[in-house]
Amino acid sequence: MTDQPTSSFVRTELVPERPAPIKTTGFAGFLRTRLFNSPTNALLTIVGVLLLWFIIVPTIRFLLVDAVWEGKDRTACLAETAGHPVGACWPFVQAKIIQFIYGFYPEPERWRVNLTFLLAAVLLLPLLIPRLPAKSLNAGLFFIAFPVVAFFLLHGGGIGGFGVSWIVGFLSGFADSIGNAGRQLAALGETSKFGVVAWLLGNAVALIGNALALIVWPLVWLRDRFQASGQPVWYDFACTAAIVSVLMFLLNGAFRTGWRALVTSLTIFAGIGLVIAVMHLDRGGLPIVDTRLWGGLLVTLVVSVTGIVTSMPVGIALALGRRSTIPLIRVFSVTFIEFWRGVPLITVLFFATYMLPLFLPGNFTVDGLVRVLIGIALFTGAYNAEVIRGGLAAIPRGQGEAANALGLSYWKTTGLIIMPQALRHVIPGLVNSFIALFKDTSLVSIVALFDLLGSLRASFADPTWATPTTLFTGFAFAGIIYFVFCFSMSRYSLFVEHRLNAHRRT
């Protein structure tokens, strides 16, 4: 074999330069990769910019550039006076801001509303900050103690008794109702076709009522002694505190482990006694302000916060009831949920306001605002139940089976394992319901309750501020308030969702 000659190649000219890579970072890269990376996206970007231009620019001009900021009446917001097109009439909002917040709440008593708002903020903010301690104590104060204090602050009035008097009143009324029903049935039996059966049944029911009245008699005697004393509230309060504290002491292990429960009970009653003394609830309390005088942002916050807080336990109970293996509980839960979801909120408000009193006894009345709060809580609870049921369905069956293998009861399994995971899954759905409820509070104006929008519409009737831009200014102001609250709830729910689902992030 002969070796073949090898040849080599050496380029004598430079290689042409390659084009620079497309920049994908920075503002130019964002425009190139996100907004103009295809003809369709470029067209959509141009259309979107035009829409924003024709919407945002006129809005800013109306609210800020051409707006009127100072004035005492409508003349300041007229184009003839200003000499140019006039935008928002903010002096109108400044003049009516008190009405937008308090409604027709008496001016000398508005400090009670301010104090209620302050207490709510002081108790709510520590609950929203995860790193602050004493969450259990703070939650108890906000969800249990604060509603009672807020009621007596906003509504006023005092108390004529405490636990013993309240229980005696309920049991006595229950026994009297049973006895009266039995006696009426027996009287009806004397004239009806089935007289003997009705007479015997009526006398049996009346006998049960009399037996209950006899059992309650010692407590009635004790209540009468309290009322005959010079300070019935404090005697009743001391007796109730002693009975409850002893029961808590005995039920938690008595002399072995019951001391902590005893100290906790006495501490709680000491706080209740302090509130009674400071607010003079034993001497009539603060002057009563009828709920028909409430209005503005006060009513909006009362209705929305009460509906949100009370609808959660209702929704949890209904969701668990719908998944129950007991047919009676399951059928009741399904019927309740489907009924309340099948009627609009306006119908619920009308029924609670105008028809519910027709079903109550003649001597029993419920405040109009309370009726609305009950209706909204049940209505929202039915919707929350379906949201929570979706979260329960997302939990694998192995979670409950593992808890059963460890010997946990149904309530411990539900409260410690199943429900926390289910609620974590449905945070967006629950907050969506809360935001919808906050906005739906404007519907209470149709049942003669003046919320923020109701007070706003009432202010339009003032001829002092009748201008072409007053209407738009008022609704823009209300829209800003609604947006601030709803956007805050949305962002905080996103924060909670990211914090609780940190283990799912990739």
Structure overview:
The protein has helices at residues 26-35, 39-65, 79-82, 90-102, 110-128, 135-154, 163-189, 195-228, 232-251, 254-257, 259-278, 297-322, 327-341, 345-355, 368-393, 397-405, 410-425, 427-440, 452-459, 470-500; strands spanning 295-296, 450-451. By secondary structure, the chain is mainly α. It has a two-stranded parallel ribbon with strand order 1-2. α16 (397-405) packs antiparallel against α17 (410-425). The radius of gyration is 33 Å and the shape is extended. 23% of the residues are buried. The model has no long low-confidence stretch (mean pLDDT 84).
What brief labels describe this structure?
2 strands, MetI-like fold, two-stranded parallel ribbon, extended, mainly alpha, 506 residues, 3 domains
Please state roughly what percent of the residues sit in beta strands, choosing from under 5%, 5-15%, 15-25%, 25-35%, 35-45% or over 45%: under 5%
Tell me the span between the first and last alpha carbons. 65 Å
Structural class: mainly alpha
The overall number of domains is 3
